[in-house]
Amino acid sequence: MLYNGSANAGCSVSGDVCNGSCTKKEVSVTPTAISMTVGIVSNTLALFILIKAYRRFRLKSKAAFLMFASGLVVTDFLGHLINGSLALYVYASQKDWETFDPHKSLCDFFGVSMAFFGLTPLLLGGLMAVERCFGVTRPLFHVTVQGAHHVRRLLGLTWLLGLLVALLPLLLQRSYQVQRSRSWCFFHLQGPRDWLDVLLLILFSALGLLALLVSLVCNTVTFLTLLRRRVQLDRDHHRHSRNTSHHCEMVCQLLAIMLVSCVCWGPILITGIIFSLQDHGEDQTSYAHMLLVVRMATWNQILDPWVYILLRKAVLRRLFQVALRLCSPHSEFRFQWQGSIEASSSVISRPDFICLHGPYLPDTAIQSDDLR
Question: Pseudo-torsion of CA 48, 38, 166, 186, nearest 10°?
Answer without folding.
Answer: 180
